[in-house]
């Protein structure tokens, strides 16, 4: 009897006990993929720390004009942008991992080959072609693809974090490369950048995944969806998306304003700030340290901009960012001095907060206007960013050769930023993005 009661009780207990659910991972895989993307962009961005540091050493060693060196940098920047939309399409066709591993290898090859160059055409081949193609394949279109596939919630925040990766690379490598150039010459600095790109390769291959469905997950904050079949005709698709987007007004406003963004950041400050400060008697290491400080506040400003983009009108955010940037550039020539003083520190902090704060709202507007093609459209908008940067990288060097000063370039860039602010304001809002979520 007792045994029967016991069996009945145990059976009832078993039946009434709640079924145990399989434990859910505390960290969604999307955040791991985002972390790998962050590290990858840092590794690829390491090379972007070099051009401004090497203009004077290359000019001294080889006798190349600043215009020649600036032309090599402009090729790199232009290819960086023009590669991006095709890289986004190639990622759809061959997968993120394969494209990024090849890109990192190209960056390492270009940086290593430059150690043995003896002519300016080699500088354009190694720095311009190889590194431009490699870094372009890991440009912002890469982060846009990862964000679009792996995240539904918190897209603005993740965009800001991944955009800040480039600034983080600058923060890590600028002081290091400046010290290496100052103490050991430019060649060891180039080797350091090559090794940084190669170190990232195993992380990408082992931890990166192309789509949430590869690991049986839904994107963060969204519903599960099967992985689409590999897209064919990657180059054709990139061109088709460009042709379709070019028929719309918002594309040209976004591309034009982002070209000015590139001209006033990568083309101007990243390339010419250090040699300009050196013209005024500042040590290269001190000027490079100021750029590194820009990197610190760039991270803060970009992440905060992503948070703001989830909550406010992206057009107005862009207008404010460009207007403030233009005003700061107009004051910069008056701040140049042999030593670092408080007004220059204020400029550096201010400019750092605004450096790529434009990216989250620009990407949000691409999503709003172009939906599923937004990553490729953003790649073309980024191409305009880099074309603008390339023009100023080259013309800034020519202006320095001709006038003996960078002042004209600072003033012209400030005026262009005012134009970009007006362009942002006239972008019309057609609809809210279909996957927008309420702010929490």
From TrEMBL:
Keywords: Membrane, Transmembrane, Transmembrane helix. Residues 1-22 are annotated as: Disordered. Residues 32-432 form the Major facilitator superfamily (MFS) profile domain. InterPro entries: MFS, MFS_dom, MFS_trans_sf, Proton-linked_MCT. The chain crosses the membrane at residues 30-49, 69-90, 99-119, 125-145, 157-181, 187-208, 250-269, 281-307, 319-338, 344-365, 377-396, 408-427. PROSITE patterns: MFS. It is found in: Cell membrane. It is a multi-pass membrane protein. It holds the Pfam family MFS_1. The keyword Endoplasmic reticulum does not apply. Residues 1-14 have a biased composition (Polar residues). Its main location: membrane. PANTHER family: EG:103B4.3 PROTEIN-RELATED, MONOCARBOXYLATE TRANSPORTER. This is MFS transporter. It comes from Streptomyces argenteolus.
